[in-house]
Fold this protein.
Amino acid sequence: MTAPVQMYCTAVCPYCTRAEKLLRARGVENIEKIRIDTDPQARDEMMQRTGRRTVPQIYIGQTHVGGFDDLSALDVAGELEPLLAG
């Protein structure tokens, strides 16, 4: 069982795709994708929650991980899997 994962994303974002592949490789089965390209309110919510304008913006549980580079750095440091384990 992994912590819940939310990802603000768009349909044509290569970093969103890479983030999803990495999460799936680490055992995440369910990713709640929040599409900001089809929902302007979701874009506003993302910017309020994260202070950032770019996608992806990833939450694992209540922790804001950041974007793909941040997610990848956590993985390389060995900190992603413990975070996913909750």
